[in-house]
Amino acid sequence: MEKIAMEAARLLFADGGAGWVVAVLLGLACLHLYRENLRVLEARIDDTGATATALERASQTNAAVAAALESRTRVLEDLSRLSAEIARGIDRNDERVRDRFEELTRALTELRRAGAA
To answer: Where are the transmembrane segments (predicted)?
Structure first.
């Protein structure tokens, strides 16, 4: 860039006045590059904004999924507790049924003995 500027300055003061044409063309080229640079930067800002929006939406979705998973985990824990309680209840009822069955068996045995005697 410095080389171009030095050459333009040399031509600017050269005989014949062609240097002014070079200076004007160089100025126009710089202006064009400046505008293109601004467009590129605006496009980058727009892309960054779109990316930020997408990340925000993804974050919200992830938060919703996490909440749903937490809710499902709570439901599964509740179901596990309920299943364990039901299993304990069945075990207790089986013991009670066995006890009653044994009482009935004893009573029938006693009745048979009493009937046989």
So the answer is: 12-34
